[in-house]
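Standup notes, structure subgroup. Blocker cleared on the molybdenum atom input:
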Amino acid sequence: MSVRDVTHLHEEFDGERLPPGQRETERFPVLSKSGTPSWSPDTWEFEVWGAVDEPRSFSLEAFTDLPHETQRQDFHCVTGWSRFDNEFTGVTFPTLADLAGVDPEATHVMFHGFDDYTTDLPLDACMREEVLFAWELDGEPLPDDHGGPVRVVTPHKYAYKGAKWVDGVEFLTDHERGYWEKRGYSDSANPWNEERYS
Ligand SMILES: Nc1nc2c(c(=O)[nH]1)N[C@H]1C(S)=C(S)[C@@H](COP(=O)(O)O)O[C@H]1N2
Ligand SMILES: [Mo]
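Run returned:
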């Protein structure tokens, strides 16, 4: 199976592979605002709503049947560690967005996790091939602590933009702030500009 390598995307942001102020770790620390929530494959449901032509919902089976790919990505946590060369498998944001049909008025996106986490991004920061709804890490089902069954990964942003336990994506016509964004973290979160706080 071919792997799409997106570990060079730092070049687009005129930065080194290791962003300023970060150190590389081999470990994969777990950072969650309130612990790991439980879920069941029978009741898990993913929803797409807001400024779209057609709101969609998917069972876990239907979601993981969507067209998907494996990417090699780096992961940058705002608290200062980066983990290189993670292989995430999932559906890309643009693929999912096309299935729902995004309204021309949509400007922003809110991701929802079932631990009541939210995080927002401008639509154009999401319509990128490396923004994945991922259900596998390094060839194994995504561990619950890291957001299983499905999480978002945003290798072009600090990792708080990647909602773990994601079960909803909402298309917005205005800017709203997510959980950490309301608490002082940067809206834009570009690691190569060290956009950590707003
Ligand atoms: N649903 C949810 N997603 C979340 C969080 C959270 O608390 N809940 N924490 C964020 C933060 S601050 C970081 S750094 C990464 C951590 O991902 P990890 O635990 O897999 O390292 O998840 C992000 N996504
Ligand atoms: Mo974080």
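Discussed briefly. Helices lie at 60-64, 93-100, 123-126.
Next: hand off to the docking folks.
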